[in-house]
Amino acid sequence: MSGWNYPRQTHQNVPKSLLDDIERIKGLVARYFPIYNIEVHFDTISMKCNVEEITLEQKFEDLRQEMKELSYIPLITKERGEYIVHVVKRPPSKFRGIWLNLILLFATIGSTIFAGAGLWSATFSTGDIFLAENLINGGLYFALPLMLILSVHEMAHYVAAKKHNVAASLPFFIPMPFSVLGTFGALISIREPIPTKKALLDIGFAGPIAGFVVTIPVLIIGFMMNGDVPQIPASEIIAGGSMEWGTSLFFEIFVMAFGLPSPLTIHPMAFAGWVGLFVTALNLLPAGQLDGGHIARALLGEKSRYAGYGVIALLLGLGLMFDFSGWLILALLIMFMGIRHPPPLNDVSHLDNKRKMVGVAAALMLVLCFVPVPLMQVDYNYDFTFQEGDGTLVGPHFSHSIDKQVFNDWQNYSFPFRIENNGNMELDLRFNIDITTNVSGYECYAWLSQNGNTTGNVSQYFNTTLELGQTQNLSLNMMFSPMVNATQAIIDIEELEYPWMEANLNSESAGRAHGMRVAVNFT
């Protein structure tokens, strides 16, 4: 079943409107709380009552259960030192069966299996995700533990709601096909107002703590299996544009405990644990109808709205600071659903110290599991450096001087050097070659060629491609007409393709175009 099925509105014992049954309502309330004043409104009956605080909570719960059978909802407030019981008509509810729950469950199982197959294939380089091996391993090591975490989380809510006699649905799983996670998570529908602060806190905390407890062994097993995962060597460059997952404090504790390297490629089962921690943190945000919103409302009352405002400010700040649109979308969703949490029916009774400590535990879990930047892109870096012909590093700006004797005939020279891609992306470089002399009337030509080839075409421009980490041997080829003493030829080579004024370069000389100057002095 997806929850409790209320009596139909056509039952002979259920009045058609609240005003048709004023005396009956007064009699029920008076049985638990002596009435000394009553006000009747269009849709509400408000009764000022004498209340004993010691027995208030139990008596109100008994009243609530009795009125539930008659399709009424009582709520109690304390206004200007007086206790007031308000009674309203319960809106009609419809029970639609569990078919939608089952359809979404099987759809989410399928989407998480495909997501797991993609993770398995990417992690172990096992080819097409539709291969049986990938589907089986993806289902076993990602979909199964993830669905277990989500199921335990939501069923804990369901059990806590049932314990407090609150009608709730079975979990609705939300598939997210063609994504790395395969699911948006799951939720249950609370089908009637939550009666007390205790129920509000218990229902809100039950899901995160249950999911958290299941996540821990999933993480442990996943990290124990991480020895089989091919790791990126510490010296290997991570390509620009690659996506990296952020981590939480709790996740980092596990990484250090298992002595794992950084950067780290994790087993799909460990990633399911990462998702479990992330889901726990999201649900514990103290805003609106999130689990953390339930907990905050139980602990802080009306002041919980300030916690909600703080969450919105935090999400907007993180989203804008780290350019992560997920936080901006979540902030808008919370605002759309409502930052304020409705009060429980009994907003008068107080929480005991044990439950206040539960609130502290929830806050600690949020801090430990929260991921400030869940997904980040590695910035592109298109840096390269020049080297001497023997491999000696020079830098992004190469200046060299060559002394030559004067001559009476045309002469050819070749100057070897290297360029190395020390960025994190493939480079398509385009060099411009410019020649100036301090004496007019002489002819000079210069061009670049690869790998010592001096027979290339004379051109003002030279194009070449450098793969990640590649070093390329080049030659500056020069041809001069007969020169006289004290003549100097300056050959400037400048890269034209990239905006070298940007500050995200590895080189210490970012801010001007990468290039080389060769001065040839004739004496």
What structural keywords apply?
5-stranded mixed beta sheet; disordered N terminus; 38% helix; 18 strands; 523 residues
Descriptive account of the structure:
With 523 residues, the protein is of the alpha+beta class. Helices cover 38% and strands 23% of the residues. It has a five-stranded antiparallel sheet with strand order 10-9-12-16-14, with no helix packed on it. Strand 9 and strand 10 (393-395) form a beta hairpin. Helix 3 crosses helix 4, helix 4 (132-163) packs antiparallel against helix 5 and helix 9 (304-321) packs antiparallel against helix 10 (325-337). The protein is elongated, with a radius of gyration of 36 Å. Residues 1-12 have low confidence and may be disordered.
Sequence-ordered SSE layout with sheet pairings:
Elements: H1 22-32, E1 35-40, E2 44-49, H2 53-68, E3 72-79, E4 82-89, H3 99-124, H4 132-163, E5 172-175, E6 183-187, H5 197-224, E7 243-245, H6 249-257, H7 268-284, H8 291-300, H9 304-321, H10 325-337, H11 353-369, E8 375-377, E9 384-388, E10 393-395, E11 397-404, E12 411-421, E13 427-437, E14 444-450, E15 461-466, E16 471-480, E17 487-495, E18 515-522
Parallel strand pairs: 11-18
Antiparallel strand pairs: 1-2, 2-4, 3-4, 5-6, 7-8, 9-10, 9-12, 12-16, 13-15, 13-17, 14-16, 17-18
Helix pairs in contact: 1-2, 3-4, 4-5, 4-7, 5-7, 5-8, 5-11, 7-11, 8-9, 9-10
Which whole number gives the mean pLDDT? 86
As laid out across the biggest beta sheet, the strand order is 10-9-12-16-14
SSE pattern: HEEHEEHHEEHEHHHHHHEEEEEEEEEEE
Q: What helical percentage do the residues reach? A: 25-40%
- Individual helix count: 11
- The share of residues in extended strands comes to 15-25%
Largest sheet: 5 strands, antiparallel
The rounded distance between the terminal residues' Cα atoms is 99 Å
Q: Residue ranges: pLDDT <50 for 5 or more in a row?
A: 1-12
Overall strand count:
18
What's the overall geometry?
Answer: elongated
- Rg calc: 36 Å
Given helix and strand content, the structural type is: alpha+beta
